[in-house]
Design goal:
The complex is a heterodimer of chains A (247) and B (488). With 247 residues, chain A is of the alpha/beta class. Chain A has helices at residues 15-26, 38-51, 69-80, 103-131, 152-172, 204-217, 227-236, 239-242, and strands at residues 6-10, 30-35, 56-60, 85-88, 135-139, 178-184, 187-188, 202-203, 221-223. Chain A has a seven-stranded parallel sheet with strand order 3-2-1-4-5-6-9, sandwiched between helices. A two-stranded parallel sheet of chain A has the order 7-8. By secondary structure, chain B is an alpha+beta fold. Helix content of chain B is 27%, strand content 22%. Classes of the chains: A alpha/beta (247), B alpha+beta (488). Chains A and B meet through helix 3 and helix 4 of A and strand 1 and strand 2 of B. The complex binds flavin-adenine dinucleotide and NADP nicotinamide-adenine-dinucleotide phosphate (NAP). Residues 33, 67-74, 78-79, 89, 109, 131-133, 136-137, 139-141, 143-144, 146-148, 192-193, 197-198, 339, 443, 480 of chain B line the site of flavin-adenine dinucleotide.
Chain lengths: 247, 488
């Protein structure tokens, strides 16, 4: 069981990231909150600092500003006085209509979900390799298991993120660094609000709780676990059949 | 966020493509040779010396400090730069000119000692001063002004450098020799990469008649016998090095084996091949009965006090076989660089790596101070697993580590459990050495404190160095991790 004294949460202004940050601060971890919306971050930080003075600090940052990631990382580490764990929970999921082909949306999806993750995880992994310790948690998704008609860029970004996290884990585990891939199913957040046909929906708090449990054990997994079975089945469906299904 | 974010303007290896004030050079985790210190820095490999000015300018704009990296054979943080930019000059590796009649070479900074001897040996030349590893670059050797097992005889590396070209952080190219910019010549050699980048170095090699040395091992039963033996041979030996068993105490304290080596003259041994070609330089393929690539695994098992006691005793007694103190012939590389041929031997020290502490002690007090140091190590339960004794002499370089006296290089294994004790021991050795008028050597250092350099070099040479530095590098752009650690 790992104890985290200091953490960075990228994508902390809402949803799962916000819930992770709240739970961390309550447990006594000092947390750097990173996202674009300053007002959301400030609101959350002041709420958290009321519970734990100096428990939270904010960093306004757009993850598509790749060159800034290492600098914000350095600033956050300096402010926190170290870094035990990084959560990358920033993500976007655009709705793509039946006959729509929208490169701008695709691009943002890849930039936020994948390239932003690399921009943050590269320098973090280097730091952790250097000190021979640390945990990196990536919020991927069950959606990355197959390429789905309704979400081409999103499913691609999550498949790529999953593979990238696996590769990163294979690079740095020998240095005592954990890389944790978390694949949630449906979570009730801004991202999924208004969508139909969701099932096994859990709250952001529950997703955060399970994510933290995985992080402490340094283990990757589905959230909740039963999505692992779904993934198994999904991967076994041949392509010719998959394209005829309504998923 | 603009859409041309990924457009690559400028050189993506060190200039950001989109006008942000950062650097796009990749990050890299680097470690000191002893593996006890690591850091994350940006990393750039210049394609030619012409790019250096541009790299300095880009680093300055990005607010990054620059440090130079050669072969990375310095034990500690001398070629590291946490949070800054490392410029790796080891890839600039051309021998620009080789005069086979005079034995002078003009080389790019990244040419290694191995490159040098491979080129020179067929013409009967060998580098005048070599370190224990042939993977060191000429620039790294000049920057540290390294010494060999013949320091007492031929001086340091810098004594054999005729001239060099230095590119300063402001982008000037300065030619330096003993007659032109003589002050800078004597400051940049031993300037540990803080004054500029060596881009071209001309050095003089020494004449050898064969590629062989005659090695005479001499056992010494005590520390004072080690010193006596050493001194008996000082006048006419080409090389002298002492190995000391730092685990022995009491009457056996400081016992060891001295090796004297002398170049073999042509015709000295009738019918013997001269070994004056690269292939004639042979090395053992097996060490400790194991293929040499795997031997470190066996060493790993011996890396504790009792294992080392055993190994040291074996080494000591082996010097008496087949016949006590009988001389034998060895190739120059086998004598000079044996450790290079035991790949990964430092891994035997385990994940914490090793630090080396090498006190340099004035001749008059050397016996007493070195005895005291050996005793302190033992009292703290931290005997060195490898102790190497050398004789040195003064030289004319500004921040030289050499003195009229002796050095004992000691390797210590670092573990999570012994870090604090090692810190205390290193401080104790440092204080003892400096109080005796001794010195230390940055190429090996990881343990000195900010207050130490003043006592090592004296206030005046340090102030002179700082003055030259301000002149050439007003922004203090060149700054290795070691320089920051020691507030230099
Ligand atoms: C097994 C082993 C045995 C050794 N034995 C000896 C020995 O017997 N005697 C001895 O004196 N030393 C010895 N050393 C130490 C070694 O010789 C020095 O550390 C030497 O400086 C290494 O050269 P390098 O090319 O690896 O330089 P690095 O370690 O990469 O750098 C050394 C210094 O040179 C600077 N530098 C690098 N390139 C340039 C450049 N182009 N211009 C200006 N500055 C530059 C760096 O900033 C740094 O300060 C030994 C090291 C090892 C690993
Ligand atoms: N909800 C689900 O059902 C579900 C399922 C599986 C996986 N996931 C994954 O879980 C992660 C969190 O999602 P969520 O459901 O919590 O979504 P959310 O509530 O919409 O939160 C998304 C977070 O990402 C941040 N973000 C988006 N674009 C950003 C940018 N350009 N720069 C910086 N931050 C940015 C947002 O902050 P700002 O807008 O303030 O910048 C916000 O904090 C995502 O990776 C998502 O793909 C979610």
């Amino acid at each position: 069981m790992k104890i985290f004294r200091t953490a960075i949460v990228v994508g902390a202004s809402s949803g799962i990231g916000e819930a992770i940050a709240r739970q961390l601060v309550v447990q006594g971890t000092r947390v750097a909150l990173v996202a674009r919306r300053e007002d959301e971050l400030t609101r959350l930080a002041s709420e958290l600092n009321a519970v734990h003075p100096n428990g939270a600090m904010t960093f306004v940052h757009d993850v598509r500003d790749f060159a800034s990631a290492p600098k914000v990382l350095d600033q956050a580490v300096a402010a926190l006085g170290g870094l035990d764990i990084l959560f990358y929970a920033a993500g976007v999921m655009h709705l793509i209509a039946e006959s729509e082909y929208a490169f701008a949306k695709d691009r943002e999806t890849i930039e936020v979900n994948l390239l932003g993750a690399m921009a943050w995880m590269n320098p973090t992994a280097a730091r952790f390799e250097s000190v021979r310790a640390g945990t990196i948690v990536g919020l991927s998704s069950i959606a990355g298991e197959r390429g789905r008609r309704g979400n081409p860029a999103y499913t691609t970004s999550k498949a790529a993120l999953t593979t990238y996290l696996e590769a990163l884990r294979n690079r740095v585990s020998r240095y005592g660094v954990s890389v944790v891939t978390v694949k949630p199913g449906y979570v009730d957040t801004a991202m999924t609000r208004g969508l139909r046909g969701l099932f096994w929906l859990i709250s952001a708090e529950e997703a955060a709780r399970q994510t933290l449990a995985l992080a402490r054990r340094g283990r990757s997994g589905f959230v909740p676990r039963r999505w692992g079975l779904v993934a198994l089945v999904l991967r076994m469906i041949p392509s010719w059949l998959f394209r005829r299904l309504n998923v | 966020m603009t859409s041309d974010h990924m457009d690559g303007r400028g050189d993506p290896r060190f200039e950001s493509g989109d006008g942000h004030d950062g650097m796009d050079a990749p990050l890299r985790v680097s470690e000191g040779w002893g593996r006890a210190v690591r850091s994350v820095s940006r990393y750039v490999v210049p394609r030619s010396a012409d790019e250096l000015a541009e790299i300095f300018a880009a680093a300055s704009r990005a607010g990054l400090k620059v440090a130079l990296h050669g072969g990375g054979n310095s034990y500690g943080d001398a070629a590291l730069n946490e949070g800054g930019l490392l410029v790796d000059t080891s890839v600039l590796r051309k021998i620009l000119a080789w005069d086979s009649s005079r034995g002078t070479a003009t080389v790019e900074p990244g040419v290694t000692i191995e490159d040098l001897w491979r080129r020179a040996i067929a013409n009967g030349y060998w580098p005048a001063v070599v370190p224990g590893t042939q993977f060191a670059t000429v620039a790294g050797c000049a920057a540290m002004n390294i010494h060999g097992k013949n320091n007492f005889r031929v001086g340091p590396f810098g004594d054999h450098v005729e001239s060099f070209e230095l590119v300063t952080p402001r982008g000037e190219r300065l030619f330096c020799s003993r007659t032109e910019r003589a002050k800078l010549f004597h400051a940049a050699i031993s300037g540990f990469g803080q004054l500029g980048v060596f881009t071209k170095i001309t050095l003089r090699l020494k004449r050898v008649e064969t590629g062989l040395v005659r090695v005479r091992p001499m056992r010494a039963d005590s520390l004072s016998e080690c010193f006596d033996r050493f001194e008996e041979n000082l006048d006419d030996a080409d090389y002298l090095v002492g190995w000391i068993d730092c685990l022995k105490s009491g009457r056996d304290l400081g016992r060891g084996v001295l090796h004297r080596a002398d170049h073999v003259r042509a015709g000295e041994i009738p019918g013997l091949p001269l070994a004056l070609d690269a292939n004639g330089q042979s090395l053992p393929t097996h060490i400790l009965g194991l293929p040499k690539s795997e031997a470190w695994r066996a060493l790993r098992l011996l890396m504790n006090h009792s294992g080392m006691r055993f190994l040291n005793a074996a080494k000591f007694h082996a010097a008496a076989f087949p016949q006590a103190d009988a001389p034998y012939l060895q190739s120059l590389i086998a004598f000079s660089f044996l450790l290079d041929y035991l790949p990964g031997w430092k891994r035997a020290y385990g994940p914490g790596g090793l630090v080396q502490v090498q006190p340099f002690v004035p001749h008059a007090v050397a016996r007493d101070v070195i005895r005291e140091i050996l005793e302190r190590c033992q009292a703290r339960g931290l005997p060195s697993y490898l102790g190497v004794l050398k004789r040195h002499r003064v030289d004319p370089f500004l921040l030289t580590h050499a003195l009229e006296g002796w050095s004992l290089a000691m390797d210590f294994r670092v573990t999570d459990g012994n870090r604090a004790a090692l810190r205390a021991l290193a401080d104790e050795i440092t204080d003892l050495t400096l109080a005796a008028g001794g010195k230390f050597y940055f190429a090996k250092d990881q343990m000195l404190r900010p207050s130490d350099p003043g006592r090592i070099f004296g206030a005046a040479p340090l102030a002179e160095f700082a003055r030259i530095k301000r002149e050439l590098d007003p922004e203090s752009l060149l700054q290795s991790q070691l320089a920051r650690r020691l507030h230099l």
